[in-house]
Amino acid sequence: xxxxxxxxxxxxxxxxxxxxxxxxxxYLGGGTNLVDLMKLxxxxxTALVDVTRLPLxxxxxxxxxxxxxxxxxxxxxxxxxxxxxDGWPALSQAVLAGASGQLRNAAxxxxxxxxxxxxxxxxxxxxxxNKRRPGSGCGARDGVHRDHAVxxxxxxxxxxxxxxxxxxxxALDAEVxxxxxxxxxxxxxx
Length: 190
Ligand SMILES: Cc1cc2nc3c(=O)[nH]c(=O)nc-3n(C[C@H](O)[C@H](O)[C@H](O)COP(=O)(O)OP(=O)(O)OC[C@H]3O[C@@H](n4cnc5c(N)ncnc54)[C@H](O)[C@@H]3O)c2cc1C
Ligand code: SF4
Prior knowledge:
This protein is an alpha/beta fold. Helix content is about 30%, strand content about 15%.
């Protein structure tokens, strides 16, 4: 049994401070990836900073016609949003291509972007995996590598990014706004 602290953040600042105060902490969204990895022993956070009560569950249309998608918008709500379906159908379709209805009801936009690879060697702590334990080797290179990368891989890792939604966001030139104790910055989704 691994023990860990649990903090429910009431504001963005509180979340960032709690995260900084616990080295080895993880933010908790819908938990559909993180909690699975904790059960497998792949993730061993010292603390979970629950961000699900933060007011980031809205899709907002901005004056320039672009969309702002909160990190806590559930995957189902994003895919079904009339403005997304109408103006950015590739995004809606990409989200619907992933997982199942039950999972999409729980999963958040932020968690979807930051989900870890579904490479089976990454998820099995008895196997070598450079991504999980740098320098241990890559089980997939000489093992089962169906669905692994054909382009853009490295000597160390041939895993693909697991998120269908991320592919659409990259193709649409989306930007991600990141918040931390040092303030706000923006990076390209790609
Ligand atoms: C059986 C199964 C099949 C699946 N099939 C697909 C598929 O076909 N296609 C696909 O794209 N996905 C698939 N998924 C993955 C699913 O989309 C993800 O599990 C889900 O989107 C993760 O969202 P979450 O909110 O539950 O994230 P969590 O599990 O809560 O978090 C995932 C990661 O993101 C971090 N995080 C979460 N929220 C934030 C935040 N606001 N700020 C900073 N960090 C954050 C967490 O710390 C963690 O590292 C599948 C999952 C399962 C279990
Ligand atoms: S491809 Fe290799 S290094 Fe990458 S996640 Fe899978 S086993 Fe790990």
